[in-house]
Every structure is written in structure tokens, then in C-alpha cells.
Design brief:
By secondary structure, the protein is α+β, with helices and mostly antiparallel strands. The chain is built from 9 helices and 4 strands; from the N terminus they run βαβααββαααααα. The two termini are about 30 Å apart.
């Protein structure tokens, strides 16, 4: 059965592959699973039909038969568990890969998203200029810790896994800030993720939606 995911009709990321449906697209491409995409507008995301799939009015969602999932991490984990290629066969290595998925979502990504909030959503607030250095320091702390853990390895724990997929995508939000350049090992790590053919296919698919939407 071919799953259907939802994605922004007009993505706010400017075609940079930052929207969270990118993670799901990438995972599906990595495991060779065809999929369909249903585009939703910001207005439609707040309507009962979509809220029945995603109670918080966000994307992506994932539908496969009578299974409906929301939250990109849960969707990627489901894909990784159903298909070979994103989780190791060894039980301990598999558990570690899943731990890295949680680390990407719960430890590394939150301060990065806070930076987006400070710069974009709170940029006009009087406390923004004072808060920004504090947020950047928190990000640098996490990046330093992650860089030490990665060392000179290609991936976080052996072969590429769903943990790397989630971590690379979380780090991608930092490219425009220049902060990744302060940590060469992480910059190279992200570049390796972007160079994967599955990432390239997923990025092209998401970019095509953005291009089509803005051509109208």
C-alpha cells in the first residue's frame, strides 16, 4: 500500500528543504518506498478534516491504510521499523540509533528552533537583542558536545541511520546563521547527509512544490 503524506501547499521555508515533511520524504526515499503527497493550505490545516489527522494543525501527517500518524519523528521511526535501511539489525545498535533520533528532536533541535523564534517571531520585541546571544550560546554548547561525540566518524554510530537523518535535518536550520562553520566536523557531517541520493530526491520533490506554488 502506498502511503500518503501531507505537506505545505506554500511552504514558508523558501524552498530550502526545512519543512518537516522533508524528513518523511527523505526517509521514504532512503528505504525505496513510493509515496503520495497531499498538499494543504494554511487555512485547510486548521479545519476539522485536517485536525482529525493532526490535532495541532501542522504537517506532516502520514496515512497508510487505517493507520494515521502525526509528528515527523514518529513517522520516520515507523518507516524505519517497517523497512530495511534506516535501523541496524543488531538490537543494541538499533536502540542507539533510536536514541539519536530522540537526541535530535529533544536536545539539539529545541535551541535551534528558539533561534528562529528570536530572530523572526520576536525580532521586534525589546528583549530580542539581549536574548539572542543567550540562545546562540546554548546552541554552541550543544554543537560542541555533538561535534566531540561525532569526532572524525562519518555518522553518529556506525552506518547511516534514522538518527543521522533526524540530526542532519535539525542542523540544516543553522546553515544561514553561519554557526555550523564554527564546527567543521558538523558542517562536513551535514554535507554528507545532503549528498545522499535519497536526500537529493526528497529535496527536489519538495522544491518542485514550492516552485510550482510561487509560479502561480
Amino acid at each position: 500500500m502506498i502511503p500518503t503524506i501531507t505537506a505545505f501547499e506554500r511552504s514558508p521555508d523558501g524552498g530550502k528543504g526545512l519543512a518537516r515533511d522533508m524528513r518523511v520524504r527523505w526517509a521514504l526515499e532512503e528505504v525505496g518506498q513510493p509515496y503520495e503527497v497531499r498538499l494543504v493550505s494554511f487555512e485547510a490545516m486548521k479545519q476539522p478534516v485536517h485536525l482529525a489527522l493532526q490535532p495541532f494543525g501542522q504537517v506532516p501527517t502520514y496515512e497508510e491504510g487505517d493507520l494515521v500518524l502525526f509528528e515527523s519523528g514518529a513517522i520516520v521511526l515507523h518507516i524505519a521499523e517497517r523497512h530495511a535501511g534506516l535501523l541496524p539489525n543488531d538490537a543494541n545498535a538499533r536502540a542507539r540509533a533510536i536514541a539519536w533520533m530522540f537526541a535530535a528532536l529533544n536536545t539539539v533541535e529545541p535551541p535551534i528552533l528558539e533561534l528562529v523564534t528570536v530572530k523572526i517571531l520576536e525580532g521586534d520585541k525589546p528583549w530580542s537583542k539581549e536574548r539572542l546571544p543567550l540562545v546562540m550560546d546554548r546552541i554552541r554548547t550543544r554543537l560542541g558536545q555533538l561535534s566531540v561525540r561525532l569526532g572524525d566518524a562519518d555518522w553518529l554510530d556506525g552506518a547511516f541511520s534514522a538518527g543521522d537523518l533526524m540530526m542532519v535535518h535539525a542542523l540544516l536550520r543553522l546553515q544561514l546563521s553561519g554557526m555550523l562553520g564554527e564546527f567543521p566536523a558538523l558542517a562536513a557531517y551535514v554535507a554528507r547527509g545532503e549528498a545522499r541520493p535519497a536526500y537529493q530526491r526528497a529535496f527536489a520533490a519538495q522544491l518542485a512544490v514550492f516552485t510550482a506554488a510561487h509560479a502561480r
